[in-house]
Amino acid sequence: MKANNHIRTRKHMPIYLIIICLMLVAFAFSFKTINRAEAASKKSYTIKPSDSPYKNNYKKNASYNDKTKHYYLLRSYLEQLEKDGGGTLTLKKGKYVITNTLYVPSDVKIVLKDGVKLVKGNSTDSKKLTPSSSIFHFISPSKLVKSSIATKYKGESNISISGEGTAIIDLNYVKEAVGIVIGHNSNITIKGITFQNMYGGNMIKIGASEDVTIKDNTFKNHKTSEYKNRPAINIEVPDSKTKTFSYTWSKNDKTINRNLTIENNTFKDLESAIATLKYTEDKYNKNITIRENVISDIKYQAIRIINWESFSIENNEFSDIRGKDEVLRAIMLYGAKNPTIKENLFTRVDRPVQISPWKNNGYGSEYKVTYNVISEKNKEDMQNNSAVDAGEYFIRFNKTYNEFSKDTERLGMYDASVKDFIINPKSEPLMNMFLSYNTYTSKTKQYYVIRSYLEHLEKIGGGSLTLEKGTYNITNSLYVPSNVTITLKDGAIIKKADDTGLKDFPFATPMFILTSPSKSRIEGAYGGYDGDKNIKIIGQGTAIIDLNYVLDALGIVLGHNRDVTISGITFQNMYSGHFIELDASQNVIIEDNIFKNHKASSIGIKEAINIDTPDATTGGFNHIWTKHDCTPNEDIYIRNNTFDNLERAIGTHKYSGGKYHENVNIIDNNISNTSSDAIRIINWSKPVIKGNKISMVNGGGNADRAIYVSGVIRPVITKNIFEDVAKPIQISPWKNSGGGSQYDITYNDVTYEDIKLMQDNTLIRVQENYIRYNKSYGVYDRDTERYYIN
Length: 790
Known about the structure:
Layout: H1 2-41, E1 43-47, H2 69-84, E2 87-91, E3 94-98, E4 102-103, E5 108-112, E6 116-120, E7 134-137, E8 157-163, E9 168-170, E10 178-183, E11 186-191, E12 194-198, E13 202-207, E14 210-215, E15 218-222, E16 231-236, E17 258-263, E18 266-270, E19 272-275, E20 285-291, E21 294-298, E22 303-309, E23 312-314, E24 317-321, E25 329-337, E26 340-342, E27 345-349, E28 351-356, H3 376-382, E29 386-388, E30 394-398, E31 408-412, E32 414-415, E33 420-423, H4 445-459, E34 463-467, E35 470-474, E36 478-479, E37 484-488, E38 492-496, E39 510-513, E40 533-546, E41 554-559, E42 562-575, E43 578-583, E44 586-591, E45 594-599, E46 607-612, E47 634-639, E48 642-646, E49 648-651, E50 661-667, E51 670-674, E52 679-682, E53 684-685, E54 688-690, E55 693-697, E56 705-710, E57 716-718, E58 721-725, E59 727-731, H5 752-758, E60 762-766, E61 770-774, E62 784-788
């Protein structure tokens, strides 16, 4: 019996397991079904000003009338979106007058189409509905029945309000009105909106929130309030003592704000742009980023910081912040810890930056004085700011509370109206930039010195940098922005160095890259000819760029540039790279230079000047900032230069199908002692090669050419001298091998008139006294025409 019972038990166990499994499967299926239903229920609604509320019962409200109808219209859809579990509400063009607060639940997108204008209304024509002071609060409508329900970061999340074209939120100069209140929220985006006409309130008020992005907006116009310091964007901590974020639904739990980004906005004609008005003791808002904003015509402090930690204010433009009866600050720091404030430009500003201890007045005054914690690195960064027509060219750092003359440190700031700089090999970086970098060593010093000036020149819109006599060892790439002239004085030597002395900071092969420093790490930043422009690199006397036989080193890299001049420089000692890499550029002049000396590369055809396209498939131009759009060069002038002891003087490696370098002019140059073809043309349209002397191409023997032509359209090759050359001119079809081999064979378009011009050249000691014109790809012994040179 025991055995039978045992057997019976084993038979029944799987049944129970099966039942349990079925229940789990059913639950899982039910859960997925619910999730799918929730996802499906999220809807999109589109409304216009003349529409009725989502449900008619809103119209039955005693306070529904012509002045409140838009409030009830939007309210009805927001309440429906809460029931839906989220979704999108799109407002079509028109004017919407909002008298009372609209409460926005989680997972909602509000889209304001071009021409939408949300206007704060100040009259309801109803005793039962008093106008409120705000337009939007980010809290679910259903939660308003409880006070202090929003705590920490547990409020609504995933909300965005975005504008298209010109979409406006107009506070209509309603006293103390607020456009958007963000409290205890997370993952919030406000983008593309014009906020206007503030009077004593705020356009956006933020408390106890995280992961908030405010970008691409305009904040403008105000009426002076009794406080005279109200910011467009107000950042506060909910605190019953300070009372700066007082809403019934918000708990005063002293939750800080963190991870806020305010970028690419315009602030104009305001009391203040961004500010905290009071602090909570030992509470610090963290990781706030303010960058690339334009802030002008501010009547108080543009940015006022109280108790912020690990924040950054970078690459902003401040202007016209001047007081009639008092000194105005662009940036005022109270109780700041570890700030990064750098690369800002201050124009017509009384005082760019001031740092002081602070104590609350009135509410919150029981809190102790808050002091600043500023490191040496923070100070170094602060000096990397520029000012033009400023009241002060330094940063004031007051150490003692309420003491503004004694115990004050001054940190220098550069006058951005000064645009011309002169350095020598012993110079230090501008404004002590980079000195704290662990990569700043005796071997990288001169790289960082020149870099500091080039980055500064970008910020101030251009200028000049003159390098005096001496040797400058350059380990890494120097990025040159628009409107910059670099002058190398007689005796100046820019020498490629290949040792930084640091394992984690390898040297780079290019020396100069004609790209703005700020764009150098942005993928696909440039295409066509829309890169940096108006750049000159000029040598005086004997000025040298020495590649120092460093493998694959490049002297100057052009890409997507316009209006560039390189003249008067001796380029020397190339090893498998190029002296000049020229891609996707327009109107480039390379004249009066010397290009000399090389160490043999593995392929034997490296040009002093390489003319190419940025093509990802051919692999000849590998920089992150190019769009790799295969843009050819146009209007290139290479004249009156000397090329000696090189593999090739000028040429193209590979072509991009259907793309032709247009109007390349090689005129009055002297080219001698090349080990391969002196000039290599691939896919050039209407080039002019005239008045050059080309001699000693591969010692005058073998089968190398003075000019080797493939894929050309209507060339002018005339009045040149070919001396000690095997083949003066050869014309052949061509096809890429390896990278770029997907492109079809490129053929030549050469007319009889073009040939006649080619026959007007001078030959001295050549093996072939004719132009060799091969008509078939890869065929050199037949289907070939010969045109004898006079």
